[in-house]
Design goal:
two-stranded parallel ribbon; globular; alpha/beta; Rossmann fold; 10 helices; UDP-galactose 4-epimerase, domain 1; 16% strand; 324 residues
């Protein structure tokens, strides 16, 4: 089996490589990312896969990558994935995410001699403004995106459907809800809190955690459960269909912070302060999903308890900040 992972140097990509190496040791893995991508997440995997640099907005580069990899399976994870950044650079977010995916589909179409299964990593952010009576969110819920990032993901989602219907490409669309765990980027809320607490423990900052909106409610899944779900999506799911992947549990961001603080030996000394710069122009108040469709199709269920995920994330940052 030949597997191509775009965005391979990222948080999810690195965990997916680890999963495939363990579950399909005979697979040839091509991991592709930007030429200037940081490779800290995959340094421990050197020699375990073939790394390629490419610009996803460059069709010629994408075509060359596809000719080189000749994949049986594609996991399209590459994206500008940080919601706040999409307000600062909306055009870049739309161009990167939409054109990047379009180039991938077009490369597959023009080569003609490959017919891979393709998983595209869509997002629960597409649902956007969700009314309380619409939860838990099913795949049939209206899409009301509230950020340029979310709009770009809606476009990716429907491009996948269009290329399935028009060109019979074997595309499975997965709408992942929040996922976290070791190696999560520090700009994301769970990692931001964990890193701050690890720095407090190390004496590198005052015992104060800076926060944004603590009232939003999210559905968190461990990244190791998420990459297992991505792999199973191409084993069992129907091309052209869309599937929520989530735990089905809601947790307030403030409760998540309390969980991480409780894991620290400095818990009694830590204070929480609001930082206005961490507030979003518009925030999604409630996102938690119903994964019944995906679970019925695949038999997948999350196995990592939330507290273990938070503990592993905090341990990751404890180790990271001790490095020179």
């Amino acid at each position: 089996m030949r597997v191509l992972i775009t965005g391979a140097a990222g948080f999810v990509g690195s965990h997916l490589i680890e999963y495939i190496r363990a579950q399909e040791p005979g697979a040839t893995i091509f991991g592709a990312d930007r030429w200037h991508a940081r490779r800290d997440n995959i340094r421990h995997l050197e020699g375990e896969f073939e790394y390629r640099e490419y610009d996803m907005t460059d069709y010629s580069a994408t075509l060359d990558l596809m000719l080189d990899a000749e994949p049986d399976r594609i996991f399209h994870l590459a994206a500008q994935s940080y919601v706040p950044a999409s307000w600062n650079a909306p055009a870049d977010t739309l161009t990167t995410n939409i054109t990047g995916e379009l180039n991938l589909f077009e490369a597959v179409r023009h080569i003609g001699t490959i017919d891979p299964m393709i998983q595209i990593a869509c997002s629960s952010e597409e649902y956007g403004l969700v009314l309380p009576e619409e939860t838990p969110i099913k795949e049939t819920n209206p899409l009301r995106p509230l950020s340029p990032y979310a709009v770009s993901k809606v476009a990716q989602d429907f491009l996948g459907y269009q290329y399935f219907r028009t060109y019979a490409q074997k595309i499975v669309r997965t709408r992942a809800f929040n996922h976290t765990g070791p190696r999560r980027g520090e700009q994301f809320v769970t990692s931001s809190f964990a890193k701050q607490i690890a720095e407090i423990e190390a004496g590198l900052r005052e015992p104060v955690v800076k926060v944004g909106n603590l009232d939003a409610e999210r559905d968190f899944t461990d990244v190791r459960d998420m990459v297992r779900a991505y792999w199973m999506a191409l084993d069992f799911c129907e091309p052209g269909e869309v599937y929520n992947i989530c735990s089905g549990n809601r947790i307030r961001i403030g409760e998540m912070l309390n969980t991480i603080i409780s894991l620290s030996h400095m818990a009694g000394a830590i204070r929480v302060e609001t930082d206005e710069s961490r507030m979003r122009p518009s925030d999604v108040p409630l996102l938690y999903g119903d994964a019944t469709k995906f679970q019925s199709q695949t038999g997948w269920f999350p196995i990592y308890p939330f507290k273990q995920t938070m503990s592993d994330l905090l341990d990751y940052w404890r180790g990271a900040i001790r490095k020179p």
